[in-house]
Predict the 3D structure of the following.
Amino acid sequence: MELRVSIQSVHQQTAEKLRAAILAGVFRPGDRLIEADLCGRLGISRPSLREALRSLEAEGLIVIVPNRGPQVPVLTWAQAEEIYRVRALLEGEAAALCARCATEADRQSMRSALQAFERAVQTGDPASRLSATADFYRAMLRGSGNALIEELLQRLVARINFLRAQSMSRAGRAKFSAKEMRAIYLAIAKGDSRAARKAAQAHVKNAEEAARDILAGDAAQTNGARSRKLSA
Amino acid sequence: MELRVSIQSVHQQTAEKLRAAILAGVFRPGDRLIEADLCGRLGISRPSLREALRSLEAEGLIVIVPNRGPQVPVLTWAQAEEIYRVRALLEGEAAALCARCATEADRQSMRSALQAFERAVQTGDPASRLSATADFYRAMLRGSGNALIEELLQRLVARINFLRAQSMSRAGRAKFSAKEMRAIYLAIAKGDSRAARKAAQAHVKNAEEAARDILAGDAAQTNGARSRKLSA
DNA sequence: GATTGACAGATTGTCTGACAATAGTGATCA
DNA sequence: TGATCACTATTGTCAGACAATCTGTCAATC
């Protein structure tokens, strides 16, 4: 039983809030984060803020340019591609492990998350879709029994969150997504680790392709502005 | 041409020095790092030190216990096992990628690092062995063309450095190591990505087993002291 | 004898205020 | 038009301070 009353340190809370803000899109790729500004808004001192920023930097969620300060990184497609490749690798492994050693409780969690997702697809509710997806993955990673993979994936996914949110809300993608997730679940339920790995990797591959389309369309629109920014 | 004379910020330099010190074994698993002490020794202020510590914490190189401060983590075997599993996955992928897209220059670097390693094995020079291994991997990861994998692996390997140094210096292990590395190189030189992946994974698997023996022997010796510490 | 309570010392968590160094900006002048 | 130069905004770094917390010790109590 956990009786602790959130004795979180300031920098820790700060890091969490900023993380959440970036994932929620409050700060967008390319945005600068001004220290004094954040201190004021969060009601904390600069040293505490800077500690939090260092944590986020090491997570890859922000980059800190010397003498210019922190900003949300703008991913190149090459970087995104690397992330997707590693993500496929790790998620495949997690699925395979899960197929081998998940408990019935884990499978149950996955099943209900999957059902929630399918309901959300039918009703067309983007928020529920996102949370159901998160639940599904959490259950799978928990079932894999490898905390390291879970942590690494969480960080990687955070870095492509921007692409993810867009491609997930794209017409048609949700339906395919549901099918792919079901395939992962079925393979795991059967205990077929080989099939589970394949299904998970295929899912990431498809997500990558959806993201690529998004980024391509995006780049075409804002190409001038962005390349000017990068070369500066 | 790079003329800059180390315009690295203080916290960055600090992080690097501490990283190097931990890898070199100056601070051993379980050691506490006292802020005031480090500030004095490094000649820096506490805020700067704390920023550096937050970076190292996010890298997993130290843990910071609330109100007790930073310390070098003591790995359980379960944690080490997770790291080895992910390492096998990533190194296998890197080897496979390298087999597909390394340039002749990359292969040349690997070849000379391998030769240096074999010479070091014959002369029985542990320091050269370590540096040659590092060179070999650096070349392979560079050849894979995936900077993310390189970064992730670097961090993971840092976390098991303690085990690694011990198992590498173990009688007999070096010779096997040389054989395994040669197998990786040959597969990459042939462009056989499948064989390269297998060879790299086998190499990690063997390293893991060597490490397990070390940890088992270690635990038997200091079991009393350690379990008392953990339960406290 | 074991548990509790109190206390001192060590260490971390956090803030304030300050100042130098740097990058970006706009004005000035050739 | 282009180069130069001050100005401003912002970051990098430090010193000093104080509260909060942990650790171990020692006496008091049951």
Chain A has two domains: 10-71, 77-228. Residues 34-36, 46, 50, 66-69 of chain A lie near DNA strand D (CB under 10 Å from a C1').
